[in-house]
């Protein structure tokens, strides 16, 4: 190098510094290749902690190679052409070596960790807690499967309803006992239209919403939660109902009876089931009928099916039904002279109790894991008409 290039020969790699002396004209650079080789050698043997120290010493703000890069500003154009590639080459080589060494060290650490945390797959696995399908959910699936085969769709609606949908549209006058406070959960505030708001007492409002929003013919079932102020072994404040609705031309009570017989036989999976329709009164159907199912007593318990007129037989009410009242059809914007229909409704919880031998409805909502384990269903018990709805 020319005489004007002077360099302080004191290189202290122990403290990772390289000190430069300067004159007024030029900062000196000496033996860049040797500096590069020294760092590369140390990088090859460094661990992760030492590697970071080397990076700071070489490439940090006060690092040796960084210091060399700063000298380029004081050089002439010819000197920068000569020294620039050498210094930049050293920086790139050291940077690449540090990155490669770091990747190798981190891979070694990861491999060691994976080796130490290996799982012995030959050991027995402790069984984990397993859930089950609640009987109510299972029965809902069974109902959907049965009625889907009959051409019915599943309809849903809000659980918070107005008095118009829950009572008025269903031909229930203001004085009807079902509107009484002791039966219905009312909200203290009314909606924007000034209507009283409540927790629906049945799923019949879904029928109203369907008739108002869909053109006939209509075939739906409406399963869901309902609420009434009642609590004992066979009643709870919150329970589940399913209601069915058919609106079409030329519908008669014969269609209703056939539908109910087909449904009950498929649900209880017995062909020896007998139904009895008794005249009754519901404001939203006319004529109306209570539906009884025949049972026999076996081992001290009532079993659906068999001869209800025999010494061990009898009748049990399971649902209400009837032809849709023309006033209800009219409230929904349809012409009752053109469209007729039938409706029915029953408690899903009660159906589950009858089919699967449960005695107390309150246990359905206690959340007792022992009860759920005993009466619950596997997630693979998917109801099918071919395989049996109770799987």
Describe, in plain words, how this protein is organized in 3D.
It is built from eleven helices and twelve strands. The longest helix is centred in the N-terminal third of the chain and has 40 residues, at 77-116. Helix content is 36%, strand content 20%. The strands form three sheets. Strands 3, 6, 7, 8, 9, 10, 11 and 12 form an eight-stranded mixed beta sheet that branches. Helix 2 runs antiparallel to helix 4 and helix 5 packs across helix 10. It has helices at 32-45, 48-59, 64-71, 77-116, 135-149, 163-166, 204-213, 253-268, 326-331, 348-356, 369-375; strands at residues 11-12, 17-18, 153-154, 160-162, 197-199, 218-227, 238-248, 275-282, 285-298, 301-304, 313-324, 340-347. The protein is α+β, with helices and mostly antiparallel strands.
Give a topology summary.
Layout: E1 11-12, E2 17-18, H1 32-45, H2 48-59, H3 64-71, H4 77-116, H5 135-149, E3 153-154, E4 160-162, H6 163-166, E5 197-199, H7 204-213, E6 218-227, E7 238-248, H8 253-268, E8 275-282, E9 285-298, E10 301-304, E11 313-324, H9 326-331, E12 340-347, H10 348-356, H11 369-375
Helix pairs in contact: 1-4, 2-4, 3-4, 5-10
